Amino acid sequence: MNPSELESRLHDMEVDGFTILHDAIDEDFRLGILNGIREIEEQTLQELKPGEAEEDSSFYRTAGILEADPLYWDIPIHPDVLPIVEGVLGPDFLLSQVSGIDLKPNTRNIQPLHPDDALIPLERPHPIPIGCTALWCITDFCHETGGTRVLPGSHKIENIDVPWDSDATNDLPGLVQPEVKGGGIIVFDHALFHGAADNHSDEWRLGVQCSYHAGWIRPYNNHFLSIPREHVARYPERLADLLGYKTYRGAIGTITVPGTNRYATSAFRPPRDVLDESIR
């Protein structure tokens, strides 16, 4: 990406809160991701729980794909995405998560509009951005397939006029649903209000969520590398929690392994469970 285009992209991020890179994914790479994630879904989809029906869910989320195959290693380091993310978040930003999101066909998939940093207890608008998402469109994102809707400029407002977790957000003025062919990437500020829509088509709609956060959102000391895991397993539970071996509100800090769930991965204390297993 040349300096002029990067400047234009960063202007879009500043004003609208998002930018779209069309035809950014090599076709062979796109097809490799498509086939690879569908294979993981087939092999690892969790069994239905008692009383649960398949129609209770509207999408599959496949986590831990970086460990599934080296194919996915190039997703977080896309050469056109990284300069944009650095321009928004500053140097030394970190990867937050990489996961597949596959909307079911002919299903009510619509999400109330939401910011990706909704769990972060900071006043809006944030003085500086704290996160970015690169949403890889592996299949076509459009009205028919339930493409992601965005509210331009909403990263700069305190809130929207209706509860952000209600269906009333679907009628907000200014809401747009960009059409992005498979192979495009939507990059947006975590504070931007956005959400998936209903997939009216007969095909699954697959995207890959690749999220980053500012590099300063972490402890001064990297306890995960400086303290052996087998030592932490013997620490008092509260001490292990303080080192980071506990999730925040069941969502931030989870452990993922290659696999597919009908709902977003959520666990209250997965790291501690793993530690306990390691010393038995």
SSE layout and pairings?
Layout: H1 3-15, E1 18-21, H2 27-44, E2 59-63, H3 65-68, H4 81-89, E3 94-103, E4 131-137, E5 149-150, E6 185-189, E7 194-195, E8 205-213, H5 223-226, H6 229-232, H7 237-243, E9 259-261, H8 270-278
Antiparallel strand pairs: 1-6, 2-3, 2-9, 3-8, 4-6, 4-8, 5-7
Helix pairs in contact: 1-4
What does it look like?
There is one protein chain. With 280 residues, the chain is of the alpha+beta class. The chain has 2 domains: 3-213, Jelly Rolls; 223-278, no CATH class. It contains 8 helices and 9 strands. The strands form 2 sheets. The chain has a 7-stranded antiparallel beta sheet, covered by helices on one side. The longest helix has 18 residues, at 27-44. It is globular, with a radius of gyration of 19 Å.
List keywords for this structure.
single chain; 280 residues; alpha+beta; Jelly Rolls; 2 domains; 17% strand; globular
